[in-house]
Amino acid sequence: MSSEKSLIEIDLVFKYDNELKKSFFIDNRNLLIFDSFFWEEVLRSWLRIIINEKKELLPQCVFNKQVFSLSFEIIDNNRISHLNQNWLKKNGPTDVLSFPIISELDNANDFFCIELGDLFISLEMAIQQSKEYKHSLKKEMLWLASHGLLHLLGWEHNNNQQLEDMLKFQEYLISEIQ
């Protein structure tokens, strides 16, 4: 591993319900989505790219940090619907939810590690969307995770241009790890 790759560390709390994994047929090509080490590598790569190439779009407290912490959980439609209703007051399931916790107070503190927040992806929605868009479940999970990570870092899409820019950057991030 090069020294550049070792600059960023991920403290990842990754969870999924094994019963959820068993309840869907997940072929061998897609089993990586349940591997914590896979997600650590992906997130580490993406953070490196984002910091190097989009620094101007990041909160100041992220600059020059080397350790990032977040939780990432693969859940079902019932659980994501519950989170969506309780926290965002929206009905029904969604594909990905992000709950960032970076605040302006983090700029005043010189923490060694930055806690980004929580990321949830509905496996059921990811499966449905992978079929709809005719690509692998792994690719859909990467798409949703990249979208969620950008939200954890403060990106928003309040208009069509912001959304288009974000989606293009997600495509770039995914292309860099495949």
Largest sheet data:
4 strands, mixed
Strand content: 15-25%
Task: Label the overall shape.
Answer: globular
Report the uncertain regions.
1-6
What is the CATH first-level class name?
Alpha Beta
Give the strand order of the largest sheet, numbering strands 1, 2, ... along the chain.
1-2-4-3
Share of helix, binned: 40-55%
Write down the Rg. 16 Å
Instruction: Determine the number of helices (DSSP H or I, runs of at least 4 residues).
Output: 8
* Overall domain count: 1
| Mean of pLDDT | 89
Please provide the count of β strands. Answer: 4
- SSE string, helices as H and strands as E: HEHHEHEHEHHH
The CATH architecture would be: 3-Layer(aba) Sandwich
Ends: how far apart? 17 Å
CATH level-four homologous superfamily name: Metalloproteases ("zincins"), catalytic domain
Based on secondary structure, the structural category is alpha/beta
CATH topology: Collagenase (Catalytic Domain)
Keywords:
alpha/beta, Collagenase (Catalytic Domain), 4-stranded mixed β-sheet, 8 helices, 49% helix, 18% strand, disordered N terminus
